[in-house]
Amino acid sequence: MKSDYDVIVIGAGPAGSIAARTTAQAGLATLLLEKRQEIGSPVRCGEAVGLETLVKFIQPDPKWISAEIDAFSLSNPQGDCLVVPPEEQTLMLERKIFDRELARLAAEAGAEVIVKARATGLIKKGPGIEGVRLNVQGQPREAHAKIVIGADGTESQSPRWAGLKSIPQLKDYYTAAQYLMTNIDVNPRICQYHIGWSLAPGGYCWVFPKGDKKANVGLVMWVDPKEKKTAIDYLNEFVAARFPDRSILSQIVGGIPVTNVLPEMAADGYMAVGDAAHQSDPLTAGGIGPSMCGGSLAGQVAVEAIKAGDVSAKFLKQYERMWDAQWGKSYRRLYRIRHALLKVPEDKLSHIIRQASLLDAQTLSLKDIALIVMKSYPQLMLEVIPYFLGQ
Amino acid sequence: MIDVAEAYVSVDYDHCSYCGACVAVCPPDCITLHDATLMIDTAACTLCRRCLPACPTGALSIVEADA
Ligand SMILES: Cc1cc2nc3c(=O)[nH]c(=O)nc-3n(C[C@H](O)[C@H](O)[C@H](O)COP(=O)(O)OP(=O)(O)OC[C@H]3O[C@@H](n4cnc5c(N)ncnc54)[C@H](O)[C@@H]3O)c2cc1C
Ligand code: SF4
Ligand code: SF4
């Protein structure tokens, strides 16, 4: 490790590795820090990703793909099930291998990657940032840089160190649990979503197949101070009712911000990317694709800023505008849709899924679904329509 | 009302998975995740309780020192 860099990236998840690869490729001296001893492990993810976003950053490789998905199913607690084709082709990843491959590509582009290196704070000078305070294998160290990119995931503290407001409202944070299960009979090409507040209050359950009778079975739910049961409690109930013969290979838990990005993602000498910037989809919480995109945009802006000799917040805010141009409109819509859905009682939601499941899936259109919603729970349509027509 | 000096957030390490969900929602930023330890700066903790329901495993609770 040197003491001076152009760019230091905190966290080697998808957001950080893509950011580091982008700046290293442009010839900037880049340091990529990871506090874990093994990049990609433990996996805190359902591992489903859309191909369209993925291929912008990496060519699919069988060594980190566990399944290809042809369809999504949407079920209510009674078992009515609607099967729809995905909006884009979807893959199931082996994130342990995938995350490591992304970090390898950053290193190949010239970035220095170190593990067991935890950022503990930012070195500040006036309003700006001069570098990062570290703990490397137990030893306190410092490294200097013109720009710091915070890619430290859901547990990120770097945005707060940089003065950004990053504490989500509880209703905009998902608490999550997942088992990697084996010996279960599921269609290996369908990602299942199960919706019902009694299954996962404010969220949903999923069964994402990984081939070989394995699947990620998990749930996200909202954070509610009045709730008596934890995410693990709800997951155990879901699993016991549906997969009596399963075996569990691993258990993971976590949290995902679903706020629709931080109000500010850039400060003087600093940009936040990925989950640190709350870039996960504010409806489904899918964050692999968006975080890679955030990492790439911040990396590009870092390159321009250093070229221009201006790392002020004013210059770096280009990154916020670039993000907004790509994702802003759909994220505002998805955020509103989730909040509109949260007001729908479970029996109405179940009824909507049941009615839709009775129609021919091959010809099912958005209009058909709109009609069903209109009949079952018109308030939902009224809340959602403006966001389809307007913004 | 719980007196700040007489209560603190306690971590049940049998249940904690070091996932960081509690870190994300803590307003005074007083929780830090190390390799396999969760450090809570009790002097900075306001006992707001936000971290409790955010924890997916129920590993956090408020303990009253006198109880
Ligand atoms: C249960 C669950 C299921 C999910 N399922 C899906 C899914 O199916 N599809 C999908 O697209 N998304 C899913 N997500 C969301 C997705 O996992 C995240 O959005 C994505 O990983 C974000 O990438 P990131 O690079 O921002 O952060 P991360 O992947 O979390 O990487 C952050 C990295 O920073 C490191 N770090 C943190 N602090 C420091 C520090 N101080 N110093 C150094 N390093 C640090 C961490 O160790 C970590 O390696 C799921 C999330 C959860 C919790
Ligand atoms: S009670 Fe509030 S202040 Fe204390 S650790 Fe939990 S979230 Fe932070
Ligand atoms: S949210 Fe719970 S499981 Fe996760 S780090 Fe905090 S105490 Fe541990």
Q: Which chain pair has the greatest contact?
A: A-B, 31 and 24 residues
Strand segment tally of chain B: 4
- Globular, elongated, flat, extended or rod-shaped: what is the shape of chain A? globular
Strand count of chain A: 18
The percent range for helix content of chain B is 10-25%
The quaternary organization reads as heterodimer
Q: Strands of the largest sheet of chain B, in order across it?
A: 1-4
How does this structure look, described?
- The complex is a heterodimer of chains A (391) and B (67).
- Chain A is of the alpha/beta class.
- Chain A has eleven helices and 18 strands.
- Chain A has helices at 14-25, 51-54, 95-108, 158-161, 231-242, 288-308, 313-316, 318-342, 346-357, 366-376, 378-389; strands spanning 4-10, 30-33, 48-50, 65-69, 71-75, 81-84, 90-93, 112-114, 117-125, 128-136, 139-150, 173-182, 190-194, 204-209, 215-222, 247-257, 266-267, 270-272.
- In chain A, strands 1, 2, 8, 9, 10, 11, 17 and 18 form an eight-stranded mixed β-sheet that branches. Chain A has a seven-stranded mixed β-sheet with strand order 6-5-13-14-15-12-16. Chain A has a three-stranded antiparallel β-sheet with strand order 3-7-4.
- Chain A is globular, with a radius of gyration of 21 Å.
- The mean pLDDT of chain A is 94.
- By secondary structure, chain B is of the alpha+beta class.
- Chain B has a single domain (4-64), classed as Alpha-Beta Plaits (2-Layer Sandwich).
- Chain B is built from two helices and four strands, in the order E-H-E-E-H-E.
- Chain B has a two-stranded antiparallel ribbon with strand order 1-4. Chain B has a two-stranded antiparallel ribbon with strand order 2-3.
- Chain B is globular and about 25 Å long.
- The mean pLDDT of chain B is 90.
- The structure holds flavin-adenine dinucleotide (FAD) and iron/sulfur cluster (SF4) (2 copies).
